[in-house]
Design goal:
By secondary structure, the chain is an alpha/beta fold. α2 (about 20-40) runs antiparallel to α5. It is built from seven helices and four strands; from the N terminus they run αααααβαβββα. The protein has a four-stranded parallel β-sheet.
Length: about 190
């Protein structure tokens, strides 16, 4: 059962090549063994919402279709067991390649300091998240324009203004804004099924 689950998971989902699969697979195996032997008697000591935050929504949607399909051959004891589902969801989430499940954030950087300053800021902005694409000013699919100067012919809510030399608080505000954009885009992503 665990072998089929892990094999089908690695075939369906994009996996991070720098992760130790053996440890995760062994943890899943131990989880199923304990659930089979103790039949839930240890669950009362577990935190109920321990694993529910921090999981990428697109992955969670795909996993919600994947898990019952694989587990249906093993009966309701496993296929409808919410405890097992949440723990396996979390354990497998440590293996996925996050960038393939996160929406791309398209950013244009404008600086009154010129091209060199824009290049330096680009490197720093890209380090905020692995799903950031820096675009030129002609791009039509921009999510945000980061600028220290006035921008003409653009919707005001698209522009994030900061100083020529951004402060730590401005960097934090930009990171929050990018997270908000990502969250909004995640809600609009249609569910992809293979």
């Amino acid at each position: 059962m665990v072998r089929e689950l892990t094999t089908k998971f690695s075939q369906k989902f994009s996996l991070n090549t720098h992760t130790n699969y053996v440890d995760v697979y062994f943890s899943i195996y131990k989880l199923f063994v304990c659930e089979s032997i103790y039949q839930g008697s240890l669950r009362e000591y577990e935190s109920r919402n321990l694993f529910e935050s921090g999981i990428i929504k697109q992955y969670e949607k795909e996993f919600a279709l994947f898990y019952p399909e694989v587990m249906k051959n093993y009966g309701k004891k496993y296929s409808e067991n919410r405890y097992l589902y949440q723990r396996v969801l979390f354990l497998f989430s440590t293996l996925i390649e996050e960038s393939s499940y996160r929406p791309q954030i398209n950013i244009k950087i404008l600086s009154s300091g010129g091209a060199i300053e824009e290049l330096l800021l680009t490197k720093k902005v890209q380090s905020l998240a692995n799903n950031i694409a820096i675009k030129d000013s002609n791009a039509k699919d921009l999510d945000i324009i980061v600028s220290d100067c006035m921008v003409n012919n653009t919707e005001n809510d698209l522009v994030f203004y900061w100083n020529l030399q951004p402060t730590e608080k401005e960097w934090e505000a930009l990171a929050r804004r990018i997270a908000e954009i990502e969250q909004d885009k995640e809600l609009r992503i249609p569910l992809v099924t293979n």
